[in-house]
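Narrative summary of target 7.
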Amino acid sequence: MTPTAPSPVILLAGVPGAGKTETLKEVRRRAPWLRVSDPETVRDGLRRLAPWLPYTLGRPIVHTIAHVLALFRILRRGGPPLIVHDPGTRRWSRRLFLRLARLSRRPAIGVFIDVDRDVALRGQKKRSRIVRGPAFARHWRRWLGLRSHLIADEEPTPGERWPQIVLTTRDRAVDDLLALVSR
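Modeled conformation, tokenized:
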């Protein structure tokens, strides 16, 4: 990234439990100058406003608000790189991310955390955020298809052209992200 080049917009993706939130916590600690769009911030705010609301009922509210905030942050030009937390398993969401990055004339980078299913399920349990079985099965099925394209160095879906994609592991995610945004 040169001083005159626009800062990138990075999608940090992975199935629920892959380690996105923990990765972002460490990235924030090591590079506080980065901008991060993370549902965790919205979740914390909702928890303060409505501590009585069960997570399962608040989840759709959290994700809707987080998506809207991320979209506005992507469109805001200038400033440091932006990292957006999203599972990345939904085609429409990745395509919207790409379109908005193009509209803001910023390069889009996809960073996908690859974990085994059991690791993802343990990650959910560790954080006490269990995604319902059918919903996780959908994420996992879509991830397997997406992952096969990423490993084969193909477009995730026809016409979904990313300037750069990084397939990483839970252990390498922080270092890989920081390498992408080093000044």
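The chain has a mean pLDDT of 89.
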